[in-house]
Specification:
The chain has one helix at residues 3-128. It contains one helix and no strands.
């Protein structure tokens, strides 16, 4: 091979190599640009998802606050009911005494009626005034 042929071959190889490097640079730039665009799109999707989740969380927090308020009201009603229930149990314990008192009162009225009559009872009430 002649010297000119070798120089021409080396020049051709150099041009091909430079062309390949330029093509590779363009490919890398395109790939980086594509990656950048994909990242930007993913970022937008992620931001939208975060916004939706944030709105949902705010709505849930609002619902939780309403439910807590309602629960507090119900707790107050339940506490009132428990106090009433306790009082009713106390009255059940006192029931025989109340019944005995009522029977005693009726018995006293009957004895008073038998002793002095209805006119006497009316006169007693008139004198109290």
């Amino acid at each position: 091979m002649s010297e000119e042929a070798i120089l021409h071959a080396l020049s051709t190889i150099k041009e091909a190599n430079n062309k390949a490097h330029d093509d590779l640079r363009e490919f890398i730039r395109g790939g980086i640009k594509g990656i950048h665009l994909e990242m930007a799109a993913n970022s937008e999707v992620t931001n939208k998802n975060i916004e939706v989740l944030s709105d949902r969380q705010a709505a849930q927090n609002s619902n939780v606050a309403k439910l807590q308020e309602e629960s507090d009201k119900r707790k107050c009603a339940v506490d009132d009911f428990r106090r009433l229930e306790k009082r009713m149990k106390d009255y059940r314990k006192k029931w025989p005494y109340l019944a005995a008192g009522a029977v005693g009162f009726v018995l006293a009225v009957v004895i008073l009626y038998d002793a002095i009559g209805i006119n006497g009872i009316i006169d007693i009430f008139k004198s109290v005034k």
